[in-house]
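request received
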Amino acid sequence: MKHRDGILFVVSAPSGAGKTTLCKGITDSLENLTHSISYTTRKPRPGETDGRDYYFVTADRFRDMVQAGDFAEYAEVHANLYGTSKRVLDDMIREGIDVILDIDTQGARQIKSHFATAVFVFIMPPSMAILEERLRNRKSDREDEIRKRMRRAVDEIRDYGLYDYIVVNRDFERALSELRSIVVAERCRTKLLRNNWIEDLLR
Amino acid sequence: MKHRDGILFVVSAPSGAGKTTLCKGITDSLENLTHSISYTTRKPRPGETDGRDYYFVTADRFRDMVQAGDFAEYAEVHANLYGTSKRVLDDMIREGIDVILDIDTQGARQIKSHFATAVFVFIMPPSMAILEERLRNRKSDREDEIRKRMRRAVDEIRDYGLYDYIVVNRDFERALSELRSIVVAERCRTKLLRNNWIEDLLR
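response:
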């Protein structure tokens, strides 16, 4: 028997802050915590599997789902659509599974209106200079792309007030330990206890 | 320069739940977290030092402090008075030191009215049978004393609604890790950030 509902963790960060690696780090090391699988109109990249990495759908199918109100949040990123199904989240939460949702601040705002009890975490670079350095070290982005990502980072960081927690990714191991601690601590919240737990304990 | 105010952690538990060992475990393993030193009218035990374990005072001095409103909380336990000085807490918090305050539910209720931002943690035994077994294994208490402590435990557990977090001490290492996680997570709270931190970051 599951003893509580799952917790929804929403994690956002500017591109280059290390969100993807950190999220993978905690789903790998904590039990009963899983990454939510998004719907996307983007084409699968080599090695990506439908139903594991994403649910790959056509733009028409995606638009139908938007019309039907199927998404808890969706956004267009670099001309592709990405969305999180309400049903997928509801099912996992009802089964008592904790879910980590790795989305931008725009999506986080939409989630906030649907899932009032979700926990919001923002991963912050230690400084804008270090963020820029990390983006340059990727060597995959052109100069105008880096400038665009830096401008977007500033906009996203200005939305920090949406978030319950801020994890500064100065040192990876430390940031991972802080993110893990947030999950572990939220699992200890008094408000998660079943109504009748105290009767069971004192019986 | 300190970058934020200290956080006040209030930890309560029924006698025998393992609170003292857990609190020592986290102050030993986390930096910038210190145990608050209480005033008491109890006589020092062998090995106890004034100003390190307690501030030992006479009953007259204690009563003067109560009259002067010096205590954030105080309580009588087994015919001795114990109290936490408001000034001691305020000073540590202002210096940016996180403080752990190990008090009963009666004291926790008083703290709640003075320190609205304090974080409240309750350490729970896994079951009443295990709590009783732990109290018996101490072999220091008489039967009537054990019965009294068990009745008091039930009263204290019924106050769990005061607390933000519940840590069940089934396995010591796990409980310690949960308590540490609560401290680490609370240190990541967005609301602790200075007002001007974002200007500094984006400068």
